[in-house]
């Protein structure tokens, strides 16, 4: 009987301590490791972390910086990370075809009119001189693409060239890593490049180039360019953790969108993004075009198929029907709990 009384007293004391501390009594949070780039397109993740949404789901989320793209898939396969964000490229298809259990589970950033966080940047000299006025004027210019191809940079190039009735045969392609495109525009190494915020505004601020055309004018409407991907840990071993992770992320994405509607929304979100991205200039956040995070974390399937078809017809892997690459059960579980977003 004495043991029972002591146990009860201990439980009561623990409960009182939890109440006084303002935190509910619970077991230790489940650790979750997410590979990130550290870009604006991942804003929903960072808002979810700072607002405590992951913690409320009993998750201790850690962001693993600069672990994305081809480097992420071995880490996913071995459980070093549980999820990763990033663009959809041939490396995703290659990983799946090699037997790594990876699925696309949620859209994090989409290109829609009014939320253009990407631009075709053209050297300012070409705009000021009148040499480039229309899409067809891109003929003969040096355009930046990254290697190895195919990838998202040449996919976008194929789209903006097509607006002028042009193909890659009508321009000179220059291999430029995405992070170096500002430098290439400044030195004249390239004349045009697809850039994303905040790089688009940075290159405009220094007078090297202008944000000539928004990405919504050449990319398929609604194209999902940043997608959360789960590895075998969440797909097989702990799907309940995946459900909670998606629920918390969706709350973060909705919070992000709702905050931006407020007069001081940018000022409220800027410190969060300054903490998790390399962009530390507070004033820059007042001038950039902000990324769109779909509040229901939807993936645009038509755009996904268009990208996959481009890769397959330009010496990349053939993904076939992209529906096989997507696992929607986690997003549906989150929607069941939260309900569809009410605009």
Structural write-up:
The chain is of the alpha/beta class and 343 residues long. The chain folds into two domains: 31-112 and 223-338, Periplasmic binding protein-like II (D-Maltodextrin-Binding Protein, domain 2), CATH 3.40.190.10; 118-217, D-Maltodextrin-Binding Protein, domain 2, CATH 3.40.190.10. The protein has 14 helices and ten strands. It has a five-stranded mixed beta sheet with strand order 2-1-3-10-4, with helices on both faces. Helix 7 (152-162) links the parallel strand 6 and strand 7.
Q: What are its keywords?
A:
343 residues, D-Maltodextrin-Binding Protein, domain 2, 2 domains, disordered N terminus, five-stranded mixed beta sheet, 14 helices, alpha/beta, 16% strand
Note the total helix count: 14
Give the CATH class of the largest domain. Answer: Alpha Beta
State which percent range the strand residues make up: 15-25%
Low-confidence regions: 1-26
Report the count of strand segments.
10
CATH topology of the largest domain: D-Maltodextrin-Binding Protein, domain 2
Annotated CATH architecture of the largest domain: 3-Layer(aba) Sandwich
The CATH homologous superfamily of the largest domain is called Periplasmic binding protein-like II
Major sheet? 5 strands, mixed
Structural class by secondary-structure content: alpha/beta
Oligomer: single chain
The helix fraction, in percent, is: 40-55%
């Amino acid at each position: 009987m004495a043991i029972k009384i002591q146990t009860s007293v201990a439980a009561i004391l623990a409960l009182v301590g939890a109440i006084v501390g303002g935190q509910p009594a619970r077991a230790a949070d489940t650790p979750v490791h997410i590979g990130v780039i550290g870009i604006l397109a991942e804003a929903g993740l960072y808002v979810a972390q700072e607002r405590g949404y992951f913690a409320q789901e009993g998750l201790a989320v850690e962001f693993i910086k600069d672990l994305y793209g081809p480097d992420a898939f071995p880490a996913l396969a071995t459980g070093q990370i549980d999820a990763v964000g990033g663009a959809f490229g041939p490396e995703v298809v290659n990983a799946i075809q090699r037997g790594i259990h990876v699925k696309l589970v949620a859209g994090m950033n989409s290109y829609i009119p009014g939320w253009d966080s990407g631009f075709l940047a053209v050297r300012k000299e070409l705009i000021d001189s009148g040499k480039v006025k229309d899409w067809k004027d891109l003929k003969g210019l040096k355009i930046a693409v990254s290697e190895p191809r195919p990838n998202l940079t040449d996919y976008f190039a194929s789209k903006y060239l097509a607006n002028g009735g042009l193909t890659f045969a009508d321009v000179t392609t220059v291999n430029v890593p995405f992070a170096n495109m500002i430098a290439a525009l400044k030195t004249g190494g390239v004349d045009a490049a697809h850039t994303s915020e905040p790089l688009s505004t940075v290159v405009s601020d220094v007078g090297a180039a202008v944000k000539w055309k928004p990405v919504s004018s050449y990319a398929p409407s609604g194209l999902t360019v940043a997608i959360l991907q789960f590895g075998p840990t969440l797909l097989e071993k702990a799907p309940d953790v995946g459900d909670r992770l998606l629920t918390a992320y969706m709350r973060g994405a909705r919070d992000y969108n709702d905050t931006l509607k407020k007069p001081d929304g940018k000022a409220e979100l800027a410190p969060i993004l300054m903490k998790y991205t390399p962009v530390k200039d507070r004033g820059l956040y007042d001038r950039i075009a902000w990324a769109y995070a779909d509040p229901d974390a939807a993936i645009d399937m038509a755009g996904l198929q268009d990208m996959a078809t481009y890769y397959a017809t330009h010496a990349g892997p053939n993904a076939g029907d992209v529906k096989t690459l997507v696992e929607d059960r986690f997003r549906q579980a989150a929607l069941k709990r939260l309900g569809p977003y009410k605009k």
